[in-house]
Amino acid sequence: MVTAAQVWEALKGVSDPEYPLSIVDLGMVYDVRVDGDTVQVDVTFTSIGCPAIDMITADVHSAVAAVPGVSRVQLEVVWSPPWTKDRITERGWKVLGMYGVAN
Amino acid sequence: MDHREQQLIDKINDGFMVESEEDMTPGYKKALLTQLTVQGDTELMSAPAYYLATRDAPTINSRIAVTAIVHDELGHANIAYRIMEDLGVDKQQLVYGRQPHEFKHPYGFDQPLENWAEMVVANGFFDRAGITLLGDVHQHTSYGPLKRALVKVDREEVLHLRHGESWMKRLAKAGGEAREALQRAVDWMFLMTLEWFGLPDDLKRHSGQLAYRLKGKTNDQLRQTWMAATVPLCEGIGIDVPAHWDDARQEYVIDCPFPCQYDPAAKRWLHDEPLTWDQVFERWKARGPMNERYVEMVQGNGGIFGGRRW
Question: CATH number for the A4-82 domain, one of 3.30.300.130, 3.40.50.300, 1.10.10.10, 3.30.70.2470?
Fold first, then answer.
């Protein structure tokens, strides 16, 4: 039986392609729903013209598909509510600070 | 060597970071400006090459990705020129006042990228060369402002690289025409990138950049670093490259005459025409087929707006 917690854990392994920071810490994952062996994930991006949409969606698919018991992954790209930097977690700010791109 | 120069080199070897013009000697400043010119020009001239190839993107998302890469490269050029501006160089003159042949970018960015396979191999090979070179500068440079500026540049180059490599894998897997186009692109772009790293160590005259610790690794070491990433990538997707790992020598070995002559119209290396490095420099100096077009794309035809400082 797949749980949402397992899926969230797997998503913590999906990093932004520029920074070693997960899309969970960036606040880009809006919802995870589990229905039997099907997982639905709602993901947003930090801008509509995000150049990494292909890379990140591919990574989300493979990370979630690797959770034991998952046979279908449905990824929904959502834009509402719009992403803002307030969604970055405390851990996220620390990592960004370490790389010299945040105070 | 002048006493002051040696004094600065000794200080740098003890870990001193140069922060301002007052810390520099004339030799240091000259070597730094040369390095920054090559760095800025390389970033700048990748932009028109990539920009023309955005037309060949097979999806909207991939077109966004490549136009974002163009945007990044212009930003990276601006960073290098801005650092030069702080040292008294006229940035406007540097970008808009030079003739096409005066730019110092590698010969690879004088070549047309004519299909999507060539675009993604440029990201996989040329941007890998960029990371190899700039990563080394970032790690070793004695110039503080450059070290700090390169943090963001390096992160963005990683994204370009990943874009290139993931598309190379997709094209290889797709097979058929896509795979053939990928192999053809690799065939001319592999040696093109190897040449980019310049003179082999046994021919290299005294290097000011190494002495002043503006970089850390030698040309041959950097060429090896590039091959250590690129050869396994290509082998892993079944794409042929003219180089392999040699167990006895514990290094990558190039399997064809290197350097040799290049036919830019046919995009073909002429293995039966080996060159000396002096002849390679002549070919570079004559510039490649897209040089004038790319510089014109960057400088534009300002018309009534041209020639003014805004």
Answer: 3.30.300.130
Task: Kindly write down the DSSP assignment for every residue of B151-209, as one continuous string.
Answer: HHHHHHHHHHHHHHHHHHHHHHHH-HHHHHHHHHHHHHHHHHHHHHT-S-TTT----HH
In chain B, DSSP assigns E strands to 243-246, 251-254, 260-263, 268-274
**Cis before B257? omega within 30:** no
> Could you give the ipTM of this predicted complex?
0.75
**Which chain B residue shows the shortest CA-CA distance from A96?**
B152
Kindly report, residue by residue over B186-238, the tens digit of the pLDDT: 999 999 999 999 999 999 776 789 999 999 999 999 999 999 999 999 999 99
Q: Is A18 on the interface with B (CB under 8 A)?
A: yes
pTM: 0.90
The model's pLDDT over A50-86, given as tens digits with 9 standing for 90+, comes to: 889 989 999 999 999 999 999 999 999 999 999 999 9
Under 8 Å CB pairs connecting chains A and B tally to 40
- Tokens describing residue B201: 């160590």
B127-140 and B219-236 helices cross at what angle (nearest 10)? 140
On chain B, the residues whose CB falls within 8 A of the CB of A19 are 155
pLDDT of residue B49: 97
Host domain of residue B8: 3-198+207-299
With CB atoms and an 8 Å threshold, state whether B158 touches A51: no
